[in-house]
User: What shape does this take?
Amino acid sequence: MVQTISWMVTREEPASRARISGVILRWFLAGGLAGGAVAGVIVAGAARLIYIVFGDELRFLSLAAAAVAIAYLGRMLGLWRVPKPQIAQQVPSSWRDVLPPRVASFLYAGTLGLTFFTRVGSLALFPMLVLALGLGRWPLAVISLFAIAGLIRAATALIVPLFDWVDDHDSLIFSALKLPARVAQKLEAGVLAAVAGLLLIAAAIT
Amino acid sequence: MLMWTSGPSRLRVGAITLGVISLVACAALAALSARGTPALAVGVGVGLAVWVGIASLFSP
Assistant: This one.
């Protein structure tokens, strides 16, 4: 994902690059926040419906989220197979050529922030979704959670200017992230295990 | 060569500023989500949201 923003910046002339990069990054962050909030509104709507029809089901859905976390942890450890539902589509790269930089930047990050309409980068999204469905009594909390995910997802692009990767080739950026990606995979297993444990405690005290 | 080059460039300073603004915005959203909600469940939710965001850095 990071390579995309790099590409958007490097297509500009070096003289105007610093200025336009700032604009692109600002619109990128705004797009991530907006996309995440829209995803949150959709999930909050479903959660609210569950709350209206069935009442407060936070305890049950916390348990369900813990079960989903354990299921995906087992998948990561190769213990069993669990499908990973996702629309494995990238945001169309043609947007970057056709649309003005700030519009392309906003829409690109907005689509990433929508979370469910592109490739799912983390298995932790699924327990998060189930847990959010249990928060129908607090729709603002659901919207905030997804807005946080969308904003941080977009903010990861800041690594490009931070490490001066603007002039580097995509494959170099990819190989630079290879080792941290292996560490991140182990961290994800830890996150899923911790989430399962904490949600079981949350269900017990709810 | 992929490395942190010396000296603060205008772009890098801007990125750090935007990073700080993003962190503040995330903290504000987390505080908003915590108002009147079950602390542990929403705390786990915030942790998951942060991780889901960060993990995308390593996805293709």
Remarks:
- The mean pLDDT of chain B is 84.
- The radius of gyration of chain B is 16 Å.
- Helices of chain B lie at 10-34, 39-55.
